[in-house]
Amino acid sequence: MKTSFFTGKSVHLRAMEPEDLDLMYAIENDPELWDVSNFSVPYSRYVLKDYIVNSQYDMFADKQLRMMVVRNADDVVVGTIDITDFAPLHRRGEVGISILHKYQSNGYGKEALELLCSYLFNFLRLHQLTAHIAFDNERSLRLFKACKFTECGLLKEWWCVKGKFKDVVLLQRLCP
Questions:
Q1: How far is it, in rounded angstroms, from Cα 32 to Cα 113?
Q2: Rounded to two decimals, what is the model's pTM?
Q3: How far apart are the first and last CA of the chain?
Q4: What is the pLDDT of residues 5-32, one digit of tens each?
Q5: For residue 73, what are the domain limits?
Q6: How many structural domains does the chain have?
Q7: Is residue 145 domain-resident?
Q8: CA–CA distances in Å: residue 12 to residues 91, 110, 145, 173
Q9: What is the CATH number of the domain that holds 95?
Q10: In this structure, are residues 78 and 27 in contact, taking their beta carbons and an 8 Å threshold?
Q11: DSSP strand E in 41-163: where?
């Protein structure tokens, strides 16, 4: 029997805390991630602090949810995982994940994504999840496919990255 939707063997997911401000500031202001986040301007600490403080941690109220991915061995935050564009009527949302470079290739992203999917499908009863992945982001495509997401479309010239348009693979996972 599952004791928590948020705890795995190597990582657990938790709500944002005020002490996450510096990490979130680093992630949100990393220009390498802007092409996949639809943002192109830096966030101030004030704006991020306000986001942490004012988030209701209720997907139905906020229409999104951000959780911190935390390594079990030492409680170090290794990344974030999000649901955005949550549509309660249609029971769907879009997944995004960011594991800090120095913690990649340890299975943390896969375990975090599996935990989040289990929570969303088995507790919140979502029907489907989607993800937008750059066609050349092989690591991310492998991650999502390993977590039972399937390709369902190709969006031609969807993102403009460093002045060049890039195709994006649309992936989807339906409730099992």
A1: 21
A2: 0.87
A3: 18
A4: 899 999 999 988 888 888 888 877 776 6
A5: 11-126
A6: 1
A7: no
A8: 24, 12, 21, 22
A9: 3.40.630.30
A10: no
A11: 65-71, 77-87, 92-99, 128-134, 150-161
